[in-house]
Amino acid sequence: xxxxxxxxxxxxxxxxxxxxxxxxxxxxxxxxxxxxxxxxxxxxxxxxxxxxxxxxxxxxxxxxxxxxxxxxxxxxxxxxxxxxxxxxxxxxxxxxxxxxxxxxxxxxxxxxxxxxxxxxxxxxxxxxxxxxxxxxxxxxxxxxxxxxxxxxxxxxxxxxxxxxxxxxxxxxxxxxxxxxxxxxxxxxxxxxxxxxxxxxxxxxxxxxxxxxxxxxxxxxxxxxxxxxxxxxxxxxxxxxxxxxxxxxxxxxxxxxxxxxxxxxxxxxxxxxxxx
Length: 275
Description:
The protein is α/β, with parallel strands linked by helices. It is built from 10 helices and 14 strands. It has a single domain (2-274), classed as Metallo-beta-lactamase, Chain A (4-Layer Sandwich). It has helices spanning 40-46, 64-67, 70-80, 95-105, 107-116, 179-185, 198-201, 207-210, 219-229, 248-256, and strands spanning 2-8, 22-27, 30-34, 56-58, 87-91, 126-130, 134-139, 142-151, 154-164, 167-171, 190-196, 233-240, 262-264, 270-274. The strands form 2 sheets. It has a 7-stranded mixed beta sheet with strand order 6-5-4-3-2-1-14. Strand 9 (154-164) and strand 10 form a beta hairpin. It is globular and about 60 Å long.
């Protein structure tokens, strides 16, 4: 069994009811945080998970809305817990530079806390691993594989396939349809995919917002990806524009036109069990 919790189903468009993009995946004894948008630790706490419980942080790409709370995760895990092991952060090339820049921005805070607390003698311990494809994790019966996606001009971007005890979940991040995602998701129990309502975005008056049509999958495109890959369940997240309560069936119907499997859509903390 793999449990998926949509911690944040929002987007760069601020929504008071939705945290930024982030998904929690529990596989065996491991807890993986996929992306870390605004408010992620608040949502994780509501799901019963603290910073100390995170086995690894997985980043699909380095767009600001997907890493907004990186500094909060680093600081909270370091200051409020007694976790001795480093935090693994797995992401595309460029992740190390972002983490180093975040630590540099936190340098005053780090020095204050080391100076104040006798039991804090070292800065946060982090191990960054950069990948674009291949197996990136194989521990305690959990295996993670990475493949490139297409979110150009944002590149490189990656998707993750998490496997445990015969069950698999794929987390696509932001992307347009691409063969590498189809291959990674092939036969998976679930595909967690970010989506936009192309029909609604096209009606928005601001060109900058309409530009997102170039490099995000519509609901229909995400559903077509799930169909081609033969996944069991499609989990939609990162709703643009923000999902209005009561309109879930509209989004689900658009997906159902391309995909005959189960379509999951919901608010922050929506949970899906696979396996």
